[in-house]
Amino acid sequence: MPSMLYNKYMNIRENVPISTLTTMRLGGAARYVIDIDKVEDLSQAYAFAKEKNLPVYVLGNGSNIIGRDGGFNGVILVCKLTGMGILREEKDEAVQLYSYSGELLDDFVTYGTEMGYSGMEALSAIPGTVGAAPVQNVGAYGQDISQSLVEVEVFDTETGEIKTLPKDQLELSYRHSIFNHGELVGRYFITKVVVELHKGHLTPPFYNSLQAYIDEHSIIDFSPDSIRQCVRAVRESKLPDPELIASSGSFFKNVYLSPEEAAGAEAAGIPVWDGGKVPSGWLIEHAGLKGQEFHGMRVSDKAALVLINESAKSYADLAAARAEIIKIVKDKFGFTLEQEPMELGDE
What we know:
The chain has nine helices and 20 strands. Helix 5 (208-216) crosses helix 6. Strand 9 and strand 10 (143-144) form a beta hairpin. Strands 6, 7, 8, 11, 12 and 13 form a six-stranded antiparallel sheet that branches. By secondary structure, the protein is α+β, with helices and mostly antiparallel strands.
C-alpha cells in the first residue's frame, strides 16, 4: 500500500522534537509521530513503520521518558485511546473497572475512589497514562498497580490480533514487567487495562510523609477518597507539576538490599523500609544535594528524588548531572543509584 494512503487516514507528523512530547523537555527530533486515537489505527500505524523499515516506540504523555540528543529515527506512536467504565460489579463488595490506555492514571484512580472502592487510592496524582502503569508497575505509599490489576488488553504487533494477557503473565515486580524487560519488549501495544477494587479502606500506619500529613491534619477518615485527597496534597507539596515545570517526577529508583546489607545499613543509621528498601531521596538529601544544581539540572529543594530541568539544553547536560549525583551518593554511602525514567532516542 503506498505511503500516501496512510496519510489519508492518519495524522503522520515528521521531524517532531522529542522535547515537545516529554515533560523533561529534552531530546532531538523523531522521524515520524502518529497519534493513535482508535484501536483500529494500530494495524495501519505498524504497517507504516514496517514499510519504512523503522522501529516503533509507544508513548503516553511522556512523563517518565527522557529524550536523547540524537533524536529517534523511527516512528513514535502517541497513545490517545480514551474511555473508562464498569466491567462488572459484585454485590457492592468488589468492582472490575476498565480504562483505555490513553486516559490519565489519576483520572482512573479518581473514578474508582469516588465510587468508594479501595485498591488504587495511593496512586493518586502520579503523572502518566493508564497504559504506562503496568509497564513500570507504578506504585506509591505501599500500593502498586499489580495489587489491583486483573488483565491488560493488547495489540500483538506480530500477529495483528487483539489479545488479553492476565496479570500472572506480566512478570510484575518493582518497576519491572514484560513490557520493559526481556524478549517481549516492543511486541505489545497496551490498549486497555482492567483492575479489581474492593470496598474497605487502608489502615495506618502509612508511609512517613503520608502519615505525617494525616497526623498534622488530625485525619481519622481513611476512606478511599479521603486517602486520595491526602496523597494528592502530599504529592503536590513536594512534586512539581510537569505541565508547568520541566521534570519527570521521581528520577532515581529506590535501592533494594539483601537482608545482610539491610542490617548493615540500619546499623549505620540509614533508614530501611519493608525489610530491604532504602529511599533514594533520603540518600540524596543526606549527601547534601537537595537544592543543588548540576549542569542546568536542579535537585528539588522539596523532594530530593526529583530532578528539575531549569536550564539544561541537552541530554548530555542531564547525563553529566546524573553522573555527578550518582558519584557523590556512592562515595558517601556506598550505594549506586539507578535512573527510573526510560530513555528514547539514538545515541
